[in-house]
Amino acid sequence: MIKQYFNTNERDFFMTNDIKINRENIFKIIKKWLYSDKDIFIREVISNSVDAISKLDKLAKSSADITPAQPRIDILVDADAKTLSITDTGLGMTAEEVDKYINEIAFSGATDFAEKYKDITKDPSADFIGHFGLGFYSVFMVSTRVEIDTLSYAPGARAVHWESETGETYEISDSTRTQVGTTITLHIAPDSEEFLNLYRVREVVRKYCRFMPYEIYVEDTSPKEPIKDADGKEKAPYTPQPINDTHPLWLKAPGECTKDEYVDFYRKVFMDYNEPLFWIHLNVDFPFRLKGILYFPKLSNKFDTLEGTVKLFNNQVFIADNIKEVIPEFLMLLKGCIDSPDIPLNVSRSALQNDGTVTKIAGHITKKVAEKLKSLFNNERESYNSYWSDINVFVKYGCLKDRKFYDSIKPALIFKTTADEYKVIEELIDTSAESNTLYYVTDKDRQSSYIRMLNDKGSDAVYLDTIIDNQFITMLENEYKGLKFLRVDSAAAMNNADAPSDEAISALFKSALNDDKISVEAKPMGADATPAILLIDEESRRMREMYAQYMQSMNSAADIDSVFPLQLTLTVNTDSKLVNNVCAMEEGELKSDLIAQIYDMARLSAFTITPENMEQFITRTKKLLERL
After folding, report:
1. 3-state SS of 355-370?
2. What is the dihedral of CA 25, 27, 31, 33, to 10 degrees?
3. Residues 523, 357: Cα–Cα separation, whole Å
4. CA 571, 573, 575 angle in degrees (round to 5)?
5. pTM of the model
6. Which of 239, 292, 295, 386 has the fewest CB atoms in 10 Å of its CB?
7. How buried is residue 284: exposed, middle or buried, by Cβ count under 10 Å (0-12/13-18/19+)?
8. How many other C-beta atoms are found inside a 10 Å radius of the C-beta of residue 292?
9. Which of 44, 22, 23 is nearest to 146 (CA)?
10. Which of 431, 418, 427 shows the shortest CA–CA distance to 462?
11. Separation CA 33–CA 25 (nearest Å)
């Protein structure tokens, strides 16, 4: 097509024409850049085989004249001959179809078949896998030569042999094949001989095709010595077993699945022998097609949820793990399988981000997860409480990442208190008050003395001990007007605002410690309380923690003390008998040592003592005991 305009009133020169494509160069680009992983050629060839079997099955259901063979796919590895072959019992191809489907790049056989037999398939998409017509050419990433032997189901069809070394030129001739179906034989290139290893091929098939709808067998056909038993007798030949599960659990209706089936499927797929807490079975047919199961795993430690796995499938064909454009990021803390034929096998991330169906699918998954959690909260509260230590990181992360999820799950956000109760935030604060304070604990063992003092004052605290709680409580403080979270060892949490500081005792300890970085105050805390406690400023500590996490995410190190110095306050207990006895002593070495000892005891309780300080503390303790 050529259009030209010369010396017109509108322009001096204008031309439109078809773009010329260099076949050799474009083919190199397709072979090298079409797929990021070389092993994906196995997925593509098997997907084509599945389509071929599915097409024949649909035709057989509409015609009594067609009797398909038992559907199966055989993969044969021959390391001696350096070949890998894939054989299916599908509908095969005629010479004309080989010329159309194989020799025309980007011509989709699946789309053409669906359109040709739309009265049979009903749906133009017809649940076939291939829609772009490019997958076959991935075989040239690993092959020096490719052969196809195929025989069509059509009456009177002749078997066809196709052969090509480059994918750019080919030969077509008669084939000796007698069975309906197709065999693709790959002559593996020297740089791809890993695919002549039986175990490597099985690994790749399990990775991509573990749940394909037709049985797949992988065998080694290299000549080998017979296997003999201890008496020298030849053992019976090995009977191959299908490598895949043709009916994954997510294809069943939720009401047909038992608890044992859910647990067994979870353990088999994710190799986790802990029993999952609970699960969500997704089953949608409109306005998009989606099936799957999401599991909430049991944690062995609080860092486990950082590594979830959600596997994405298209018509039982594995696409990838954890594609955030399809599965919301916070859901990747879970484990599960999502299968949707409305998500293409090969598509760019940018296209997924702008795909309306993908957006709807992600939103639906988030909605169903929130509904499941709310249902457990409303109907199985005791179980929900017992799950909280395992799921709270996931729930909080979801709240931080997805506003709609937070709005939905907000009524089911609970907090475990130091009194071993589970309460929602409205049960912990006075919503009618202008301001509220919630005390929290990050380490019940290290902060036990602070918890005890807080309880003595008639106050309780909640446990917030996950790695994202710093961001989570900041979000809640912005959500609830006047709400302030204070850690139990913070200066604001332990400070008795009504009691004035004893300036004489404060000055004594300040002078003896001779440390400008430490603030000192002296207030009554009860005769049975510790002689002194070290309190940390809430704001400076939060800033330090957030900065440390940021630097860790940037794989960088920095002197945090120089950027956010920790603001510490030593609160001396004026009710303590030891403190009062020390204050009454005459000036001297013993008095100085006892003040330093009280300070180090406070640092030990707050876990802020350094190794050097610890050595001094032990030496001083020995000296004080010797004086006794």
Report:
1. CHHHHHHHHHHHHHHH
2. 60
3. 63
4. 160
5. 0.75
6. 239
7. middle
8. 25
9. 44
10. 418
11. 12
261's CB contacts (< 8 A; 6+ apart) are: 249
10-residue block means of pLDDT along the chain (628 residues)?
50 49 55 67 92 90 83 95 96 90 59 50 46 68 94 93 86 93 96 94 94 94 71 72 94 94 94 90 90 87 62 88 79 89 64 70 90 96 94 92 94 94 92 87 86 83 90 92 88 66 89 86 84 82 72 58 74 91 91 90 80 86 85
Q: How many helices (H) and strands (E) does the chain have?
A: 20, 22
Instruction: Name 617's Cβ contacts closer than 8 Å, sequence gap at least 6.
Output: 597, 600, 604, 609
- The three-class DSSP label of residue 445 is coil
Task: List phi, psi (to 5°) of 572.
Answer: -90, 135
| CB proximity list for 223: less than 8 A, separation 6 or greater | 80
Per DSSP, the residues of 83-102 read EEEEEE-S----HHHHHHHT
Phi, psi of 427 (to 5 degrees): -85, -10
Q: Give the Cα separation of 340 and 363 in Å (integer).
A: 14
Q: Which two tokens mark 275?
A: 């029993």
**Number of neighbouring beta carbons within 10 Å of residue 420:** 7
Report how far residue 278's alpha carbon sits from residue 258's, in angstroms, rounded to the nearest whole number: 12
